Amino acid sequence: MNEFPFGFNMPNPDDPDRGKQGGDGQENPFDQLGQMLSQLGQMMSQASTSSGPVNYDLAKQIAVQKLAGQIGFTAPAEAHTAVTDAVHLAEMWLDPVTTLPAGATSTKAWTAKDWVEHTLPTWQRLCDPVAKRMAGAWVEALPAEAKAQAGPLLAMVGQMGGMAFGSQLGNALAQLGSEVLTVTDIGLPLGPDATAALLPANIEEFTKGLERPASEVMVFIAAREAAHQRLFAHVPWLRQRLLGAVEEFANGIKVDISALEELATQVDPANPATIEQAMQSGMLEPKTTPEQQAALARLETLLALVEGWVDLVVGEAVTDRLPGADALRETMRRRRASGGPAEQTFATLVGLELRPRRLRAATALWRMITDQHGMATRDGLWAHPDLMPTAEDLDEPIDFTQRLGATPADDPIAQLERTEQSERAADEDKPGDDKTGDDK
What we know:
The chain is mostly helical. It is about 65% helix and about 0% strand.
């Protein structure tokens, strides 16, 4: 894991141009300001050019170069066949345990390089808010006079910042690409719509030490991917809610201006050691705001509901067919809930840990709903976000299940419409809304 806060990169201490004086041997104060801006731009990924806050071309280039020595660029034909067969079998097993039909219209066997290329557009959507906030916060805090004096330097610093963030993103994508098993492995819809994609080389590495046949693990992973794709394809609001929660968290980033002022007194642009000390002190790390905490809570609850639903339906689909299904389910639960290197890398990029911390509670709730009200009612709750269980419902699953049974359980949308009608009627009956009683 990167030892520095997300969105930051250390400047190059070997740069021969760092700390040079003017032609008269005296350091100009404006030169010192320019050096400070350059250093801060590198550290905080400052970006203000029209090309955007992150150099994604550089990110892709670095990721591909790092992965070139780890995993081949072309998945063999037998890998494509194995993935296609596994997904086809998984879809047949899933059909009887959920009302949501198959969501993937295309099945792919990706290399890590493929994963980088096909998920980069989504990473751009997730990382841009972080880079923009980090770039703009400290520039906005500069006095007007300093902004005017430093104006010509800001575009250059923006390019440097874009390269800095792009470099960090590229390294992170390389690490993620060497670990993820499927395109939905971290719980977000990172890839193209309706595309079920597995990474056979990573699955092969994951299988080592599990003491299960490779074909069994492949089918199990395929079932999880197919279940995720059913949700993302047939729950129209889900993709936007998940990605939107991440964006909302990133947009709420606030930099402590007082820390910047303290940094200015402690950092010598000509001395890399002072910059390193400032970075390791954490003084520039953004503080989590109440708004971000609320966004994070919503994201974690929704992730838990997604992962819990997938865990349940996959378990129902494969438990009687794969001898090692229970052990594989437990392995995946721990992998997702505890957070591995992939989740840690995500935290360095976006500033939050992408974990479904309430996964077991969500699985238990979905199980209770299924047992008491049936599969159709359980899956019908995905029809509208207002029908979904909340974090409080994960704490009190019995209460939620009982409320669900208090009205006709076979039509959640009708239940929602009745609730909305009641609320509208209550609003119309509020005193003071009648305009006919004007005595003037």
